[in-house]
């Protein structure tokens, strides 16, 4: 899935868990997501909030390299210069 193919609208489901990575770099953000993945069951929806501009590529790569499904990545502008990204992943079988 390329960045242009990633849905930009949140799925109509309530997330089972949220990881708030706003204000952290992508490397530590991915580590937090990987720890969270240990605590959620297959079929659960994980929401990841981030301010790192690489979120669109990093979380798409994570989904492509695992059996998790990337449902959407929303982009919102918060203030003049800051963007926030909200990623939704459906957790695959473990």
Automatic annotation (TrEMBL):
InterPro entries: TusA-like, TusA-like_sf
Residue ranges constituting the UPF0033 domain according to the UniProt record: 17-78
Any Pfam family the entry gives: TusA
Organism of provenance: Natrinema altunense (strain JCM 12890 / CGMCC 1.3731 / AJ2)
Name recorded for this polypeptide: SirA family protein
Top-level taxon in the UniProt lineage: Archaea
SUPFAM superfamilies: SirA-like
Signal peptide span: none
């Amino acid at each position: 899935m390329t960045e242009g193919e990633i849905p930009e609208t949140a799925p109509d489901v309530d997330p089972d868990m949220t990881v708030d990575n706003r204000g952290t770099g992508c490397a530590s953000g991915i580590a937090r997501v990987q720890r969270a993945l240990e605590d959620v069951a297959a079929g659960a929806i994980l929401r990841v909030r981030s301010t790192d501009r690489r979120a669109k590529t990093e979380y798409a790569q994570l989904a492509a390299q695992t059996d998790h499904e990337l449902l959407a990545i929303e982009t919102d502008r918060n203030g003049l210069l800051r963007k926030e990204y909200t990623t939704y992943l459906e957790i695959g079988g473990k």
